[in-house]
Amino acid sequence: MATGLSGGKGHWTRRRQRPLDAATVCVREKVSGESTQWWSHEEEWERRRSSGRQLTSAPARSMGRRKKDFPLKYFACSPNLTVTSSNEALASASKNERYMENGNIAAASPEEVRRSPAFGWAARDTSGVLSPFTFSRRKNGENDVTIKILYCGICHSDLHSVKNEWQNSVYPIVPGHEIVGVVTEVGGKVDRFKVGDHAGVGCMVNSCRSCHECTGHQENYCPGMILTYNSTDADGTVTYGGYSDSVVVEEHFAVRFPAGMPLDRGAPLLCAGITVYSPMKRFGFDVPGKHIGVVGLGGLGHVAVKFGKAFGAKVTVISTSPSKRQEAVERLGADAFLVSKDPDEMKAAWGTMDGIINTVSAAHEVTPLLSLLKTFGQMVMVGAPEKPLEIYAFPLLLGGKSIVGSAIGGMKETQEMIDFAAEHNVTADIELISMDYVNKAMERVAKADVRYRFVIDIGNTLSAA
Amino acid sequence: MAELGNGKKQASPEEVHPRKAFGWAAKDKSGVLSPFAFSRRNTGADDVTIKILYCGICHSDLHTAKNEWSNAIYPMVPGHEIVGVVTEVGQNVQNFKVGEKVGVGCIVNSCLSCQNCNRDYENYCPRIILTYNSLDVDGTMTYGGYSNMVVVNQHFVIRFPENLPLDKGAPLLCAGITVYSPLKEHGLDVPGKHLGVVGLGGLGHVAVKFGKAFGMKVTVISTSLKKEKEAIERLGADAFLVSSNAEQMQAAMGTMDGIINTVSADHSIAPLAFLLKTHGKMIMVGAPEKPLQLPIFSLILGGKTLAGSCIGGIKATQEMIDFAAKNNITADIELIPISYLNEAMERLTKADVRYRFVIDIGNSLTEA
Question: Which residues cross the membrane (chain B) (predicted)?
Fold first, then answer.
């Protein structure tokens, strides 16, 4: 959607809308001949500065003014907050606002808000191919911790984002939200961390901190929640994730790693772990003796099996591939294994499960899974198939069953989950890779060819270009 | 001869039990009903015999009579919103006396020993026996309330308080409990919470009344603007949304604690999911034939629930009737003689009724 012309021939500003993030971000697009090139805000500033042009205004940026046709269709709204007000709350926190003549709020230049150089790997376009990328991080504020990144897990969401599969990607994207490292600087008001501590960052780096969800420790459902990458932060800058050498984050959104917790195998818990732990606690799947089904044995599924066993539940894995049976039962400790395409196996398990965690992102039939539930059983969806699910109403009615969605978890329960995992030796099964293997690893993630999470050895293999 | 599902033939409906009874039955999947002579069992030790005065017409009666659920066994006597007066009780019956006003809903028997029955969820018993079109424990067909009398195990009989009108109270025995039970189960009975009611028919209008009685804010969501005045002025709803009006729907996004969806026609539920607050619940009590299409993001972003519910247990049904009597909640009905039955069924297919037909059995059903 074009919002107006500015600048010389061939330049215009295009406004992109982001589900999950109420603020809109402008990127500039230049069409030259037949090719189209994209720049981010930051790169636009670089170009202007190096061209010697006088910087009278920053590139136009709207801080979430809600347009009539804003497709909020993927929005979870809190009763106390509208989209607009949450962004105004965030915007007013920034000291770097300037009003432009046309009434838009301009963010400060990247140099004014970010002082420390950083480097990482970014995807530049929808091919999703990553390559070295230089950028900068904000200076450490009084509530911030700076973390030198040692490891970062590769989540399937990273792949969805770099390929723009969710139609909300703004390039360049530095993915990565399973970040673990060592604290190198703490702000004056920080009291949970000191330099040298091991810390992690998951999927969120900010939220409004005042709505009903935030005060209830459910920052993951805050309408103003800022994601670790591909989001617009409170100061108007784009967030860059953990495929990089460092991250600066508010203390509230950092997680302490207990001593003795392996950093590489613990990194995936920051997304995969909390994504299954949160609903398992919320819906009472953590009660010893309950029978839990886990659908899909990948990054999320294998961690769900481990947590389920640690809770004292009986765990049955439901999968399309018989080849995973031995792995599931002998290595991961599952009590049983059902092949979902085998009608006899499935029928024998009808009405036996208190709950099911469904981690599958591919399109699949959920109605046969509902039959596995006892009366009042709940199936929690943590995987997000692209096409709509087809749900027959009768199996829900006859048994009072439900399908519930769940998205990551709040910060308090993320810390709780890490502490629980440390106590019960729950870690992810990983394949540790070097930074330059990342594109190959992404290809393998697309084919689910990994047992069960790639983790990038950032500390040892990421070097400045 | 009645043809049972297992292929066995047994004595004709008139002879299988010792007491003569009569009613109207559907003989085939045209669903057309006509006079029908059959029989009822004698009053057993745990039984209550009821002379039927009124019976509500539920949409399920229509679905079943026309074999839309592929489980019809003909001849079929529908009707599971039965109200009448006790004429005889068995020797073990302590809780009912001759002359008392009572009702029978959708269930006439269950195993009474499984985990669900023991927790008062007879509606989810795997061996549930429905008031009609089911095989009873003795292998005979159950026949419902479009008839002059019924014999029921006392456990499944509901006492009608004195002040609850029998005709307007009859539909509560199915429509009432079907909405009351999930509203209570899912915490949608808390004063100040915001309830959405989708569909304003037999179930929907009763859901509005219960919602208001619970002290909730109630918004009706409907496809037709025509129903707005009715919903707000007569039924007491606080607001009305037309589901095809994108602006209205957008303005109401994220405002509802729960939604009870009573619609049986195929419809799109994704826009309804966005009306829910974080952790909000949508409860399906209608059963559309085609599968619901649900983009999973609509549940994941906000941790929302899509649940199903089917009638309710007997204890909950009694509680619901007592609550209705105390709060003057009754159904809005059109009372009809039995001779009007087929026409009423036709009007029901077009949803042309405000909001439940009730057959005046006591005054209009006579032996053919």
Answer: none
CB contact under 8 A, B287 and A394: yes
Yes or no, beta carbons of B286 and A213 under 8 Å apart: no
- pLDDT at position A456 is 98
Locate the chain A residue with the closest alpha carbon to B287.
Answer: A393
Chain B residues with CB inside 8 Å of A218's CB? 278
Residue of B nearest to A21 (CA): B301
Q: Mean pLDDT, consecutive 10-residue segments, chain B of 368 residues?
A: 55 86 95 95 96 96 91 95 97 96 97 95 96 93 96 97 96 98 96 97 96 97 91 95 94 96 91 95 91 91 95 97 97 97 95 94 88
Chain A closest-CA separation from residue B285 CA (Å): 7
**A116/B229 Cα distance (integer angstroms):** 63
Residue B105, token pair as written in the block: 């809903």
Q: Hey, are the CB atoms on B278 and A77 less than 8 Å from each other?
A: yes
* A136 burial type by CB count under 10 A (0-12 exposed, 13-18 middle, 19+ buried): middle
Pairing of strands B239-242, B217-222: parallel
Contact between A390 and B124 using a beta-carbon 8 Å cutoff:
no
Q: How far apart are CA A223 and CA B151, in angstroms?
A: 57
Distance of alpha carbon B53 from alpha carbon B145, whole angstroms:
9
In A, which residues are within 8 Å of B306 by CB distance?
A: 391, 396, 402-404
Interface of A with B (CB under 8 A): 19-20, 72-79, 212-213, 218, 221, 279, 351, 367, 375-376, 378, 381-385, 388-407
Q: How far A151 CA lies from chain B's nearest CA (Å)? A: 28
Is the domain defined by B175-308 classed in CATH 3.40.50.720?
A: yes
Enumerate the domain spans of chain B: 19-174+331-360, 175-308
Is-above-0.90 flag for pTM? no
Complex confidence, ipTM: 0.91
Q: Which residues pair with A5 in a beta bridge?
A: A12
Could you give the CA distance from residue B250 to residue B259 in angstroms, rounded to a whole number? 16
Topology adopted by domain B19-174+331-360: Quinone Oxidoreductase; Chain A, domain 1 (3.90.180)
Is B308 close to A395, i.e. CB distance below 8 A? yes
Same fold, B19-174+331-360 and B175-308: no
**Beta-bridge partners for B359:** B55, B336
**Distance between CA B125 and CA B115 in Å, rounded?**
8
Q: What number of C-beta contacts closer than 8 Å exist between A and B? A: 144
As a whole number of angstroms, the distance between CA B238 and CA B220 comes to 8
The answer to whether the CB atoms of B254 and A79 lie below 8 A apart is yes
Q: Which amino acid is at B363?
A: N
A431 and A453 Cβ atoms separated by less than 8 Å? yes
**What is chain A's Cα-based Rg?**
23
CB atoms A407 and B291 under 8 Å? no
Sign of CA dihedral B245, B246, B251, B256: positive
Highest mean pLDDT among A7-11, A263-267, B299-303, B363-367 belongs to: A263-267
**Mutant choice from B71, B276, B296 vs A, greatest count of A C-beta within 10 A:** B296
End-to-end CA distance of chain A: 36
| Chain A partners within 8 Å of B294 (Cβ) | 388-389, 391, 403
Angle at A320 between CA A317 and CA A322, to 5 degrees: 75
